[in-house]
Write a structure and sequence with these properties.
Number of domains: 2
Structural class: mainly beta
CATH architecture of the largest domain: Sandwich
Helix content: under 10%
Order of helices and strands: HEEEEEEEEEEEEEEEEEEEEEEE
Largest sheet: 6 strands, antiparallel
Strand content: over 45%
Shape: globular
């Protein structure tokens, strides 16, 4: 989108918003729920076992919201299928607490251990059986998400750049995360479990280069192992970065039907209007004031639009709202599905 077009959009909002503050923190918060289309629905399992429909009894910021950390966690092979294709990790924030937006740089590895799932040893390298696979390396953009109370809603998705094929015969499942730089102005706590029955163990050190760490048997993050699924995916809106003047951010989507198009609009009003039988499960979450553009859904049903805000103090404090519409002829009689909403405030 051109700078001129974006200025035109923000001018509409400036008229509606009134006075703007000169000192405002940029925010972008997700709200509402998208509706199901014919896109690929994520599959996979949740570990430790028993937490696919309920939250754990604890919460922790390690390792995905901690800089310069070395972290490892194990899971019993019996809680995974005999063979499983793992395409990413899904996490959820602590129940009824909002998830903050931030960026963290990390390397993520998956593999096997012959140690018992609850009994890692204190030397990181000694827990691996065979050579681990690096499945993610680089910047992880964590979106801001409003507080949730549904354990089926995952608030952080970590897509693997290299899929991992797990086989029970090779050992218990083991993963390791090394975080380095990033920006953490606030702290998010992810759903975790602490139980004598939980078949998991974590190890951590507050130095990314550490070779040994502290152990916590029966304690670990609740992880959704993303695998192949069926149709009926929910269309999700997310963001990378926040709308600060002079900066770039993007509004993203996932869960769309492949090889179609997604259309993003901007509104000056936040709404919550159910659309009835024509669009089952869909709601209009913002007024449809300006079409910002469209993006192909590609083969993965994901994409986004990137924007650079002008470096103008006149924009600071303006609020606006976004929603995606995906063209999906197989979904319903109207052939479209909608995402949840995104509420933005332009800051410095």
């Amino acid at each position: 989108m051109s700078t001129a077009s974006l200025v035109a959009c923000t001018a509409v909002l400036l008229f509606a918003a009134g006075n703007a503050s000169a000192q405002t923190t940029a925010t972008y918060t997700l709200y509402g729920n998208g509706c199901a289309g014919s896109g690929a629905k994520p599959g996979g399992v949740v570990v430790p076992q028993g937490y696919d429909q309920q939250y754990g009894n604890s919460a922790n910021r390690y390792p995905f919201c901690t800089l310069n950390m070395h972290y490892m966690q194990s899971h019993d092979k019996a809680e995974l299928p005999p063979t499983a294709l793992i395409r990413g990790f899904n996490l959820r924030n602590r129940a009824n607490y909002a998830q903050a937006a931030y960026l963290i740089t990390m390397d993520l590895y998956t593999g096997y251990t012959n140690n018992a799932a609850r009994s890692l040893v204190t030397t990181f390298a000694s827990n691996w059986t065979g050579t681990p696979t690096k499945v993610f390396s680089g910047n992880l953009n964590v979106p801001s998400v409003a507080a949730q109370n549904d354990p089926k809603v995952w608030t952080l998705k970590i897509p693997f750049t290299v899929p991992f094929i797990f086989t029970q015969a090779r050992g218990n499942f083991l993963w390791e995360c090394v975080t380095t730089t990033g920006t953490l102005s606030t702290i998010s706590f992810f759903d975790s479990v602490s139980s004598a029955a939980a078949q998991t163990c974590r190890m951590w050190a507050n130095t990314s280069s550490a070779t040994t760490g502290s152990l916590g048997s029966g304690y670990g993050l609740v992880i959704g192992l993303d695998g192949p699924g069926t149709g009926g995916a929910i269309v999700n809106l997310s963001n990378t970065g926040v709308p600060a003047i002079g900066k770039t951010f993007s509004v993203d989507f996932s869960g769309a039907v492949a090889n179609s198009a997604a259309i993003l609009w901007l509104g000056a009003q936040q709404l919550n209007i159910g659309l009835g039988s024509a669009l089952p499960g869909c709601s209009l979450y913002t007024s449809l004031d300006v079409i910002l553009g469209s993006n192909p859904t590609g083969t993965t049903g994901t994409g986004g639009l990137k924007f650079t805000l002008p470096n103008s103090q006149n924009l600071v404090g303006i609020q606006f709202y976004n929603q995606w519409m995906v063209i999906d002829p197989a979904a319903n009689t109207l052939g479209v599905v909608l995402s949840g909403g995104g509420a933005a405030k332009i800051g410095t």
